[in-house]
């Protein structure tokens, strides 16, 4: 009989753990504000990282198309495209690490770190908006350069690529620490 009771308790405990939520709600003062804390911190930032990577990949695709169509034999365009891709890689890494750090801090001290995590999400949104604008500017420049002579085409594309680099620098410098700002430029 004892064995059956132990087996039933074991089955019951196992079944309860199957239905356990992968997050918990913590209430922070003042105002008893709810904060969601995931048991696995990657779940709190993974959707944002996927969105971030999608935005960066879209812009990289546009840059590669510009390079393939207009950069043939033109070192200055190729160099600017490579420079922009490097900036995108740096920003992607920086934002991903910032989100991970904020998510880990949320697990350690949710009430203290919720503002940090929210500010990282705000910065992510600004960066994705900038990336979208840069991609549109480059696409517009490609359309504007159609049918132009090579020097005019080069000037239009070079100007768009320079503005894109400035926009990325601005969004990087807005949120980066002083030591990070030095490495972007």
What does this structure look like?
The protein is mainly alpha-helical and 185 residues long. The protein has one domain. The chain has six helices and two strands. A hairpin with a 4-residue loop joins strand 1 and strand 2.
Brief sketch in words of this structure:
The chain is mainly α. The chain has helices at residues 2-18, 42-70, 75-108, 110-145, 150-175, 178-184; strands at residues 23-28, 33-38.
Mean pLDDT: 78
Number of continuous helical runs: 6
Q: Can you tell me the number of structural domains? A: 1
- Gap from first CA to last CA: 74 Å
Placed side by side, the strands forming the largest sheet appear as: 1-2
- Estimate the helix proportion, in percent: over 70%
Q: How would you characterize the largest beta sheet?
A: 2 strands, antiparallel
What is the approximate shape?
A: elongated
Q: Which H/E pattern describes the elements?
A: HEEHHHHH
Oligomer: single chain
Poorly predicted regions are: none
Q: Percent of residues in beta strands?
A: 5-15%
Rg calc: 24 Å
Q: Label the structural class.
A: mainly alpha
Number of strands: 2
